[in-house]
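Final report, results section. Input specification for complex C-07:
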Amino acid sequence: MRIPLIAGNWKMNLGIAEGVVLSQNICNNFDKSWLDRVDVLVCPPAIGLRPCLTVFEFERLKVQVGAQNVHWQPQGAYTGELSCDMLASAGCTAVIVGHSERRNLFGETNEQVNLKLRAVLAQGMTPIACVGESLAVREGHDPVEYVCAQVDAALAGIDEAEAARCVIAYEPVWAIGTGRTATPEQAQQMCAAIRALVADRFGSDVAEQVRVLYGGSVNVGNIDALIVQPDIDGALVGGASLEASSFLALIKACASHAGAGGTR
Ligand SMILES: O=C(CO)COP(=O)(O)O
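Structure output:
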């Protein structure tokens, strides 16, 4: 059974002070009973991980913090990079890998995404592997085939127990930051195809455990229709995670749709 996850990806927004203020504002208006039904994660820029987590710990609120990127090597001459061990030491429990902005702006390949995912798993953290097609692929090719190939590459070389710990985020590139969301039907179709692929590679028990998120212009106006889809287990949220009020509204919506005990 799967507990839904609402994850905020702050991207390169909010310095330490602003991140602490947002974290405090999230705490101030958080209904703790939501956490019986939904997991909540925020992914600030790396320098904000520890300060934001300190706010949540001080408030005794089980909001987790995650990183937006990582290097797969344990240490060495990789100027500007952070290792899994470093992120874990900051209290990080999850890491986004393969976000389309990293793939498209920084040339990250499927192979690198796989190396990162495996390093995150080896550290005992949760990888959130992002996949998604561009508009050109959606209009001119088979988007399901394209996205499933990305998932296959990301999950290569891991075992069933590791696969069950992965989160996969379907984020169509054309829906990110554009205000144009995939329809609930489009999102459900892709998330179901991702789960079917996981079932094929790792078995149906694993597929039942893996959380598949939707991301791309998620907001308070569209979360309800997305979260009721059977294969959508939450959302990876960009813009709407930068304000406490909109982020909290998404958590509340997700909690109110989750089944008894938070599972679906
Ligand atoms: O990229 C995203 C989350 O990782 C989505 O961003 P937006 O919600 O701003 O479209």
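Residues 5-10+15-262 form a domain with the TIM Barrel fold (CATH 3.20.20.70). The chain is about 45% helix and 15% strand. This concludes the modelling results for the funded period.
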